[in-house]
């Protein structure tokens, strides 16, 4: 089995098939899984067009040479084992991670050798692996311990310092999801995820890089919020493992007041994107934006894509044209009132 690991736009569909008993076994995690978050930071650092919502994190990370040095070995390991492609090993995100980093890393160290071998062999079908991966695949204790240390150091540099920021954002998202569940049941919960998720009983669908079916078979589904996940959810490659869906929190929760107080809008998102956002004080098409700002239509399209993914604008087709409008969040940010609970 494969899955999308670039966490970008999708071309396929993930279909999660529910039985009646699965609907009573849907659980909603109240905080991110630290191992998933660690992996997802690598995707964010590889993004060509970086979301302005993550700009304070980018800047803090690169402004600290000690942090950059500390995360170097883990970054090398993750870039090898979690490449941009259709697969990465499930042993890197064990179910026990929901109990915290220590539980997750302990479970990772205890991964049975046959599973390490099988999953790394699967990865090798998609990319050439360096020689240092072989001892991991063979279950070498020193190699696994070295991997665990590298991942721990990476987490301490790239994820742990931002736990309060990410925690407040995911807590706000969880509160919103929990209200939907309490007032509307599972169907209300799923409806609140639209358009990210589409509930077509008895199947829950989401855009995915590949076409994939996940049969729950009475096991239920654990929904886990993620601060660093963007655009599309992720799930495990092996359908026999406990079903989990890592979903990106609503973008409005990532915009915290402290981010806009620290810097002006141009510094936060760059002069061109700031200009695009200001220009959309009135709705405009991509062509109109390009003319107003004297940039190419392709550049205008790239900027609107990033702003849309940041939750600042909405885009819809108006005949042959694509029309962009500010969201309430985009308007609030322009007015300096982007203060969300």
TrEMBL record:
<protein>
    <submittedName>
        <fullName>Helix-turn-helix domain-containing protein</fullName>
    </submittedName>
</protein>
<dbReference type="Pfam" id="PF12840">
    <property type="entry name" value="HTH_20"/>
</dbReference>
<dbReference type="InterPro" id="IPR001845">
    <property type="entry name" value="HTH_ArsR_DNA-bd_dom"/>
</dbReference>
<dbReference type="InterPro" id="IPR036388">
    <property type="entry name" value="WH-like_DNA-bd_sf"/>
</dbReference>
<dbReference type="InterPro" id="IPR036390">
    <property type="entry name" value="WH_DNA-bd_sf"/>
</dbReference>
<dbReference type="InterPro" id="IPR011991">
    <property type="entry name" value="ArsR-like_HTH"/>
</dbReference>
<keyword id="KW-0804">Transcription</keyword>
<dbReference type="InterPro" id="IPR051011">
    <property type="entry name" value="Metal_resp_trans_reg"/>
</dbReference>
<feature type="domain" description="HTH arsR-type">
    <location>
        <begin position="241"/>
        <end position="341"/>
    </location>
</feature>
<keyword id="KW-0238">DNA-binding</keyword>
<keyword id="KW-0805">Transcription regulation</keyword>
């Amino acid at each position: 089995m494969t899955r999308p690991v670039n966490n970008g736009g999708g071309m396929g569909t993930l279909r999660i098939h529910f039985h009646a008993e699965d609907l009573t076994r849907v659980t909603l995690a109240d905080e991110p899984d630290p191992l998933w978050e660690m992996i997802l930071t690598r995707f964010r650092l590889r993004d060509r067009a970086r979301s302005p919502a993550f700009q304070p994190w980018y800047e803090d990370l690169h402004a600290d040479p000690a942090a950059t040095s500390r995360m170097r070995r883990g970054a090398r390991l993750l870039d090898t084992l979690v490449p941009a492609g259709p697969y990465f090993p499930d042993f890197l995100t064990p179910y026990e991670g929901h109990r915290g980093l220590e539980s997750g890393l302990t479970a990772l160290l205890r991964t049975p050798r046959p599973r390490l071998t099988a999953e790394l062999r699967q990865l090798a079908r998609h990319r050439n692996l360096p020689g240092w991966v072989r001892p991991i695949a063979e279950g070498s204790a020193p190699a696994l311990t070295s991997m665990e240390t590298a991942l721990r150091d990476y987490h301490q540099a790239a994820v742990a310092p931002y736990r309060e920021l990410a925690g407040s954002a995911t807590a706000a998202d969880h509160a919103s999801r929990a209200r939907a569940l309490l007032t509307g049941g599972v169907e209300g919960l799923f409806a609140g995820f639209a358009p990210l998720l589409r509930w077509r009983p008895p199947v829950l669908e989401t855009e995915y890089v590949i076409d994939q079916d996940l049969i729950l078979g009475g096991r239920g589904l654990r929904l886990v919020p993620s601060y660093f996940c963007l655009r599309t959810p992720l799930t495990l490659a092996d359908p026999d493992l406990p079903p989990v869906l890592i979903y990106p929190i609503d973008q409005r929760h990532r915009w915290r007041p402290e981010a806009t107080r620290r810097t002006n809008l141009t510094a936060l998102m760059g002069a061109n994107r700031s200009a695009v956002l200001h220009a959309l004080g009135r709705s405009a098409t991509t062509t109109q934006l390009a003319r107003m700002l004297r940039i190419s239509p392709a550049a205008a399209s790239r900027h609107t894509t990033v702003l849309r993914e940041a939750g600042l604008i909405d885009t819809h087709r108006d005949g042959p044209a694509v029309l962009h409008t500010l969201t309430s969040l985009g308007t609030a940010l322009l007015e300096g009132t982007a203060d969300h609970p």
